[in-house]
Write a structure and sequence with these properties.
The complex is a heterodimer of chains A (about 200) and B (about 800). By secondary structure, chain A is of the alpha+beta class. Chain A has two domains: about 60 residues, Single Sheet (N-terminal domain of TfIIb), CATH 2.20.25.90; about 80 residues, no CATH class. Chain A is about 35% helix and about 20% strand. In chain A, α1 runs antiparallel to α3. Helix content of chain B is about 25%, strand content about 15%. Chain B starts with 12 loop residues before the first strand and ends with a strand. Among the domains of chain B are: about 230 residues, Dimethylsulfoxide Reductase, domain 2, CATH 3.40.228; about 150 residues, Barwin-like endoglucanases. Chain B has about 800 residues and is α/β, with parallel strands linked by helices. The relative contact order of chain B is 0.14. The radius of gyration of chain B is 27 Å and the shape is globular. In chain B, the strands form twelve sheets. Chain B has a six-stranded mixed beta barrel. Classes of the chains: A alpha+beta (about 200), B alpha/beta (about 800). Chains A and B meet through β1, β2, β3, α4 and β4 of A and α2, α11, α14, β12 and β13 of B. β8 of chain A pairs parallel with β12 of chain B. Iron/sulfur cluster sits at the interface of chains A and B.
């Protein structure tokens, strides 16, 4: 009931145009309404600040997870909502961002390294060691076989064109930076991210 | 964005063109509605469709896809001929007065220097200003010399009459003139228009030039550098800005530096070409510091191994033998069997690249494919038969696929850059599912294994691998903080000023890129980010949302590149005396008491250079001004010109009906096989455009239940007139086909799409949302790139997804 009353007052104020900021007029929920719900639902959760992973508005989100974060305690995200302090989004999320929890907990999430062998129609689970050793070996063999130090005109080019890399513009700057550092210094030039498309 | 999301509220007019922000950037769009409600602003949309943005616009027009340059080019002509320009701004802050070389010209759709055999401008030498004996450009500030940029531009667009614009674009003359009039009203100093665009401008074979035309309009109106102004790219992915800034593109290095071409064998000319010197006396021309940024990057990557003696490892960087090794080029080579290995880190090329049949064939030729993704993408399963949705024979595909599960945003620390250039830091909320790992850790671990192989076995040119700096506490698990500090940069030795005073101790984090040196005393992995992680700490994590000037400038929230500046070119928000153009447009201004620029933003200008010194506000440009004349920067001409999409529903380019070379962008690259796969409008009469919906994000959210529930099934939108013509009613299934493939989907029959009158015929548009595929929890659907053509923008190679032709029929 508390919530309903607060919301109704909020809309009344909005209609009168008095005492509410333009932000409230735009549909940003009043803090009191937020707070009275959250107190029940989110007790005992950990609050973490983050940003929506979809578009480049970069709306602020608060992620609530259960579990202490201690060594053996399993932590799980159980709620995500807009961050009311965020100067762009002021607590709002769009229909994409409102589904972030279902992205984090999607059945489509990959959990283990796997390999699909040539000609096969199925996946086989492998260890991280197996997967990374395999890839490192492929990188080395292909690079050693096809790295070009000098081109036909005798110019120094020191590049490797037979392996390419697409980087993720949904990943962090830190991932992007280390990816560039590694990929470029292997000599790769066929290297792009989603900005190309 | 030159400006930022909240700043949209300061606009008097908002032009939404080449984008649909109410649908694709809904929360950012709230600042458009804020401007309408509280700044009395008007929103105008120009789009082939009646969009969600258009639904709340005060004025709108419908335009044939791919013809935006005609509308904007005609606008340029209108502004000039009716003298509705911000003259003081144009004369002092742009290159309008500079003279262009006498041998530069434009004839029948082609600029000087074209080679039809190579389909390229092979001689761009005339695309330049006239330069005097002192090395500076010649100018005529009266703007009357027929060779001055202003008069050249005027002549170029004089062809773009309202009647011609209408006959090409399908926008009625009355709509054109009404909207031009409204836009022209922002030429007064204290009113601004902001332009919002997205992939509706980039995904054309003339995409880069559409955006240039918009920038030219904004310069004529004096709207660049102004609150509520600018040309604002509303970017797609959450960190597509950051990955661009960090240079993860085939020809770039971090911070918009570029790799050398094979012809650039020597270090000094490589630097000199990029360290642009002023073209007018005393101008800042900030790129003249290029070597400081470059050497600091080399020190970040190679540490002590990079020295002046070896030209800071110049030869270790790969050099380019083609203009671009972009994705279209790469998949062309892959389809010919020239690529053995391919990595897809959070990228789904089977769904995202044009001509899906070609992409499948290309991936099938790989020896190995590595997938790093939080989700089961279509590319990961490209070899898997999923009936009509992925009709392949697994046994015939010899590609080995190695799949590595990665964390999503909720499971790693780090920063992402939003469209407004804000670097915002986030924190881990929970561990990832199963054995998934962060991308940083995967890349580090993989690198260490490769390096170990080189150390143990030797191999070809191991130098950049075995010498790469790797000082992370846990080498296989660099922390986000360590990497952020590295791209920010630090002093390697004590730095001193002219008097020998120590300004920065060895090992300290740098606060500004102005501290970088070209002699190896500093390192910085991405110079434009320098300042984000200084001795003060991690400024990207700041959360002070206060807005002391009340114009939406929260400088204490996160950190924006460059230098925490929120509006680029903001010196242009003040007149030549240093005063704001209008009281309601005050952003930064000159304080004679303090002897420096002050205000609500970090001045984009030398802080103590008085207005009387007369420096231009566009400090990255050698002229100090905004450029109407593109010089040699573009591959397809110094002035934007309209060319038809490679697949066009009309037979000719009405601007150059008699020159087949100028029908499509004459400088756009198209591979022979892909040209053969273009359709003709007689066979495929309907103009098609792809787009996204508010409920979905690309091909990700079909994996998320909520989104899959609200928008479960693939559809295409067709207008009622077309539906009547082909006998389709709403809910029927239709087949949409191009020369390259076909898809089936439910038809949404709507009045939101109307035929446009082009020449003597009605052209129907077909709207094709792109979110479905054969993995995920939504209903299975067809990848729409079965239809799209394999050709891109001449400059960027961004595929032409927004303009192609199809045939729609009842299934
Ligand atoms: S919530 Fe919506 S508008 Fe905000 S960042 Fe996410 S996708 Fe963009």
């Amino acid at each position: 009931m508390t919530v309903n009353v607060t919301r109704r007052q909020f809309f009344k104020l909005g209609a009168a145009g008095a005492a509410t900021s333009s932000m409230a007029m735009m549909g940003f929920a009043p803090e009191s309404a937020e707070a009275s719900v959250r107190r029940f639902k989110l007790t005992h959760t950990k609050e973490t600040r983050n940003n929506c992973t979809y578009c480049s508005v970069g709306c602020g989100v608060l992620i609530y997870s259960l579990g202490s974060g201690g060594e053996n305690a399993h932590q799980e995200v159980m709620h995500i909502e807009g961050d009311p302090d965020h100067p762009v989004s002021r607590g709002s999320l769009c229909p994409k961002g409102s589904g972030l929890l279902d992205f984090v907990r999607s059945d489509g999430r990959l959990e283990y390294p796997q390999v699909r062998e040539p000609g096969s129609s199925e996946w086989t689970r492998v260890t991280w060691d197996d997967a990374l050793n395999r890839i490192a070996r492929y990188i080395k063999d292909d690079r050693d076989a096809n790295f070009v130090q000098r081109n036909a005109q005798g110019q120094t080019v020191n590049h490797w064109t037979t392996t390419g890399f697409l980087a993720a513009s949904g990943s962090s700057n830190e991932a992007g930076y280390i990816t560039h550092k590694v990929v470029r210094n292997l000599g790769m030039v066929a290297f792009d991210n989603q900005a190309r498309v | 964005m030159t400006n930022h999301w909240v700043d949209i509220r300061n606009a008097n007019l908002i032009l939404s063109m080449g984008g649909n922000s109410a649908e694709a950037h809904p929360v950012g769009f709230r600042w458009v509605t804020e401007a309408i409600e509280h700044n009395n602003a008007e929103l105008i949309t120009i789009d082939p469709r009646y969009t969600r943005t258009g639904a709340v616009a005060q004025d709108k027009a419908f335009i044939r896809t791919g013809t935006d340059i005609t509308f904007l080019g005609g606008l340029i002509s209108y502004l000039i001929e009716t003298n509705q320009i911000q003259r003081e701004y144009v004369v002092n802050y742009t290159d309008a007065s500079l003279l262009v070389r006498e041998d530069f010209g434009f004839e029948d759709g082609l600029f000087t220097g074209y080679d039809p055999e190579r389909r390229a401008y092979t001689d761009k030498s005339s695309w330049m200003y006239q330069v005097g004996d002192d090395g500076y450009a010649l100018r005529d500030t009266s703007l009357t010399n027929p060779r001055c940029v202003y008069q050249m531009m005027r002549a170029h667009y004089s062809r773009y009459t309202p009647e011609l614009v209408s006959s090409v674009s399908g926008v009625p003359v009355g709509d054109i003139q009404r909207i031009w009039r409204k836009i022209a009203a922002t030429s007064v100093p204290d009113r601004t228009m902001t332009i919002l665009y997205a992939l509706g401008w980039t995904q054309h074979s003339i995409g880069s030039q559409i955006i240039r035309t918009a920038a030219m309009v904004q310069l004529l109106l004096g709207n660049m550098g102004m609150p509520g102004g600018g040309v604002n790219a509303l970017r797609g992915h959450s960190n597509i800005q950051g990955l661009t800034d960090l240079g993860l593109l085939s020809q770039l290095l971090p911070g918009y530096m570029s790799l050398a071409n094979a012809s650039e064998q020597d270090y000094r000319p490589y630097i000199d070409k990029r360290a642009k010197q002023p073209l007018l006396p005393d101008e800042v021309s900030y790129w003249k510091n290029y070597e400081k940024f470059h050497v600091s990057l080399m020190k970040a990557w190679f540490g002590d191994a990079a020295s002046e003696a070896n030209n800071w490892c110049y030869n270790w960087l790969p050099k380019l033998e083609r203009p671009l090794y972009d994705v279209l080029d790469t998949f062309e080579r892959m389809s010919k069997g020239e690529i053995n290995g391919y990595f897809c880190q959070g990228f789904n090329p089977l769904a995202s690249f044009p001509n899906r049949a070609k992409v499948t064939a290309a991936l099938s030729k790989l020896k190995y494919l590595v997938i790093m993704d939080p989700l089961n993408t279509e590319t990961r399963e490209f070899w898997h038969n999923v009936g009509e949705y992925n009709d392949v024979d697994s046994s015939q595909i010899q590609t080995e696929v190695i799949s590595l599960p990665t964390c999503c945003f909720a499971e790693d620390d780090g920063s992402i850059v939003n469209s407004a250039r804000w670097l915002q830091w986030h924190w881990v909320a929970a561990p990832p599912p199963g054995e998934a790992r962060p991308d940083t850790q995967i890349m580090a671990d993989l690198f260490l294994r490769v390096r170990r192989l080189y150390e143990q076995e030797g191999g070809v040119f191991p130098d950049p691998i075995v010498n790469l700096t790797w000082d992370y506490k846990q080498p296989a698990k660099p922390s986000a903080e360590e990497l952020a500090k590295e791209y920010n940069g630090r002093a390697l030795v004590d730095l001193t000023d002219d008097q020998g005073n120590v300004t920065r101790r060895a090992g300290e984090q740098l606060a500004s890129f102005s501290e970088l040196t070209a002699d190896g005393r500093t390192e910085a992995g991405c110079w434009i980010f320098t300042g984000c992680y200084s001795e003060e700490g991690n400024l990207m994590a700041r959360r002070d949302n206060s807005d002391p000037y009340g114009i939406g400038q929260s400088l204490g929230w996160a950190w924006a590149w460059p230098a925490n500046r929120r509006i680029l070119y903001n010196r242009a928000s003040a007149d030549t005396e240093g005063n704001p153009w209008g009281a309601n447009k005050a952003l930064v201004w000159w304080s004679s008491e303090q002897g420096r620029w002050i205000g609500a933003d970090i001045p984009d200008f030398p802080a103590q250079s008085p207005p009387s010194a007369g420096l231009g506000p566009f400090i990255m440009q050698p002229t100090g001004g905004g450029n109407f004349f593109g010089g040699q920067s573009m591959v397809d001409g110094p002035f934007p010109e309209h060319y038809e999409p490679f697949e066009s529903p009309v037979g000719q380019n009405l601007l150059h009906p008699n020159n087949p070379l100028a029908r499509n962008n004459p400088a756009a690259r198209i591979f022979a096989g892909d040209r053969e796969a273009l359709g003709s409008w007689e066979e495929f009469p309907h103009a098609a455009t792809t787009y996204r919906l508010t409920e979905h994000f690309h091909f990700w959210t079909k994996h998320a239940k909520l989104n899959a529930i609200v928008q479960p099934e693939q559809f295409v939108e067709i207008g009622t007139a077309l539906a009547d013509e082909i006998g389709v009613s709403k809910g029927d299934r239709v087949r949409v086909s191009s020369r390259r493939g076909s898809i089936y989907a439910v038809a949404v029959v709507t009045r939101r799409l109307r035929p446009l009158r082009i020449g003597d015929r009605d052209v129907h548009h077909v709207g094709i949302p792109l979110h479905w595929g054969f993995t995920g929890v939504a209903k299975k659907g067809y990848l729409v790139n079965a239809l799209t053509p394999f050709v891109g923008d001449a400059n960027t190679q961004t595929p032409e997804y927004k303009s192609f032709i199809v045939k729609v029929e009842k299934a």
